[in-house]
Amino acid sequence: MPTDLDRRALLKGSAITAAALGLGLPLSACESPPVQTTSPTPHAPEPNAMTINIVRFEHQGLPRWGVIRGERITPVPGDFATTGDFVRAASIPHLANLSGESLALSEVALLSPVTSNQQFVCQGANYRQHMIESGMDPDVKTYNMIFTKAQSCICAADSEVIKPQRVQFLDYEIELGLVLKKAISGPVQVTDANLHEYVAAAVIVNDYSARDVQIPQMQFYKGKSFRTFGPVGPWLTLLDASSISVLKGLQLKLTVNGEVRQSDSTANLVYGPAETLTELSGVQNFEPGDLIATGTPAGCALSIPSPAKQKLGALLPEKKKWEIFFKVQSKRSQYLKVGDQVEASIRSADGRFDLGTQRNRIIAEG
Predict the structure, then answer these.
(1) pTM of the predicted protein model
(2) Which of 73, 232, 233, 312 reaches 20 to 30 Å from 161, CA-CA?
(3) Contact 72, 58 (CB under 8 A)
(4) pLDDT of 263-289, one tens digit each?
């Protein structure tokens, strides 16, 4: 049976579809023009906060974990089959002092630091400017939109993204990902003060989306779950009590062929990590290593109709509405094409916390 959360997500999906067609409802997917927003001053991490970046990589045919420092990787002793296994055992002080023989980054192939057994849960319409431009009031906070992606879409940060033959409107969505630290099997009260007990690390996620599947069919899962539609990494930036506040002021930037398409700060998140984890703990179980993507800023390719067009669209027959949708979207040059190069980066304003850069080339299926 669908939960109340499922029903609310479906209703919000209906609103997204309706607005994209011009039905007079607010748009709450990623359909705004490129925008760079100003952000309130975030709380800074403690001066002694340690920055530890963890990669998962393949070397001599075997997957391993390591601490990356510059262009060198120091392997972590032990056998950790999953992200959950690693975060259960991870100790920031121990990893900060890890020594031994290192490998050159150029000698290895980086893998996704989130393994494909972990849950992939996503938030939608979660940045202030994104909501404002979509005709919504971020201060009202009607509900937190939640959906999932297939675990099989998870891939390495530098993976080529396959554009399926059936997909015409391929879109990008840079997102801050949170990797969970411990199991949740019932309702918990998560606050900014205890968030570090639940979140092990931050990571870059790109929620690639087939809008011509997602919107007409109201299928978030299907439209966002094609293989390679979930690059994660390049590494996990570990967090603890001294550094967790950095989540309030990370800068996100995405470019396509060098052109900035998305630029915003996590200071502008509407539903923060603590509030979201508190809500979801009353809905579902989580395991260490599970991934939550916290939503994307404005600036994606999907277009928003003017208020006048929305009112006009409400009067049109269903078939005609979809014809208009495809006609309007087909004129959007922002949609990704074969050969496009997408780069996504997240870091703190002072550069102390750097989640790295994803680089994806769009390739044709087959």
Answers:
(1) 0.88
(2) 73
(3) no
(4) 999 999 999 999 999 999 999 999 999
